[in-house]
Amino acid sequence: MDESQREFLDGLLRTPSPSGFEAPGQRVWLDYVEPFADEIRTDAYGNAVATYEGDGEGSIALSGHADEIGLMVREITEEGFVGLSRIGGSDRTVTRGQHVTVHGSEGPVEGVIGQNAIHLREGDEDDVKEISKQYVDIGTEDGEAAHELVSVGDPITFSSDVVDLAGRRLAGRGMDNRTGTWAAAEGFRRAVEAGTDATVYAVSTVQEEVGLRGAEMVGFDLDPDVFVGVDVTFATDYPEAPGDKTSPVELGGGPVLGRGTQNHPVLVEAARMVADDEGFDVQLVAAGSGGGTDAVKFYTSRGGTPTLDLGLPNRYMHTPVEVVDTRDLDQVATLMGRLAERLGEFAPFRVDV
C-alpha cells in the first residue's frame, strides 16, 4: 500500500458515514475513483458508481458498502442530556464510557456516554443497559442549551481514530466496511490501468447495515454480468473467539471466499485460480445459510446474477476497535482487479446441470 492509497484509506475511515448519512464519505470515494473512470454518478439515496467502458464483451461490478453502524439522537431531556437509539447493529456492551461525536446541522458536537462510577454501583447495576437507557452528556446545562446544538435524528459516531498496531495491523471504527469501498475502488483502478477489455463498475453502496438497501437499488439498476461484493468477515484467531459459529479465519491469512448460497461456483474457482497465480493464499468459509452482506441482494436482483461474496478478515466487528491486516486488504483489491482484468477467461458463468 503506497502513500496515496493509505491516505485514501485514512480519509474514508476518518469521515463519519453512519447509515442514512453517507454523503461525506461518498464524496471522498468519488474523488478518488474519478480520474480512472469514464463516468461517475450517484442516485437519489447516495449510492455511488464509477464506470469504465471496456472495448470487449462482459461486465463486472466491484462493490463495498459505505455506511457504518452508529447511534442517533432519540430525545433531548429537560436537563440537557441526549437519549439514544441505534443505527444498525450497534453493541450496547461497548457504548458506555465512550467519547462520541454528534453530527449536528451546525457542525460536530463532542460528548461522552455516561455511566455510574464503579464505586457507586450496586451489584445488579453491572448488567449492561439497553442503548435506549443510555445517554450522551454534551456538557449543556439544560434542554434549551442542548437544542441549540443538536436535534432529534442527528447521527452519532464514536470518536475513535484509525491507529497503526504492530506489523501490518490497523485498528479503528468503521473498518466495516470502508475497507470494502477502498478495495472496490483500488480493484477498479488496477483493472483500468491493466487495460481490461471488460466494462468495470466500482460501486459504493449505502444503508447495508440497516437491511442491504443500497445493494437492492444498485443491483437492479446496473445489471452487470458478474457482481463481486467485498465486506469484512469474522476473524476467529483471538482469545475467546466462538470458533463453533463460523469457519476458522485468520488475520493475515488472505482473502476469504464463501462457498454456497450466493457464491457462484464458477466465480469461486476463478478467484482461487487468480489468487494462486498471484502467489497468495485464500481462506474458505462455509456459507450454507442466507448471509448478511450486499451479495445477498445482488445475486437475486435481476433473476440470478453470478455473485461472489469476498471477505476481509476483521477482529472485533461492530466495535470502535476493529482490527484488520493491510496485507489481506491489498490482496482483496488485487483479487478484485485481476478478476476484472481476466473476466473473459472464466465466462460463461453458468452452473452445469
Proportion of residues in extended strands: 25-35%
Termini, distance in Å?
42 Å
Helix count, DSSP H or I runs of 4 or more residues: 9
H/E series: HHEEEEEEEEHEEEHEHEEHEHEEHH
Radius of gyration over all CA atoms, rounded: 21 Å
Give a description of the structure.
The chain has helices at 3-14, 23-33, 143-147, 175-193, 213-222, 265-278, 295-298, 326-341, 343-346, and strands at residues 39-42, 48-52, 59-65, 70-76, 81-87, 99-104, 107-113, 135-137, 155-158, 163-164, 169-172, 199-205, 226-234, 256-259, 283-286, 307-314, 322-325. Helix 4 (175-193) crosses helix 8 and helix 6 (265-278) packs across helix 8 (326-341). Helices cover 27% and strands 26% of the residues. It has 353 residues and is of the alpha+beta class. The protein has 2 domains: 3-68 and 173-346, Aminopeptidase; 71-158, Peptidase M42, domain 2 (Elongation Factor Tu (Ef-tu), domain 3). It is globular.
How does the SSE layout of this entry go?
Elements: H1 3-14, H2 23-33, E1 39-42, E2 48-52, E3 59-65, E4 70-76, E5 81-87, E6 99-104, E7 107-113, E8 135-137, H3 143-147, E9 155-158, E10 163-164, E11 169-172, H4 175-193, E12 199-205, H5 213-222, E13 226-234, E14 256-259, H6 265-278, E15 283-286, H7 295-298, E16 307-314, E17 322-325, H8 326-341, H9 343-346
Parallel strand pairs: 3-12, 3-13, 13-16, 14-15
Antiparallel strand pairs: 1-2, 2-12, 4-5, 4-9, 5-8, 6-7, 6-9, 7-8, 10-11, 11-17, 14-16
Helix pairs in contact: 1-4, 4-8, 6-8
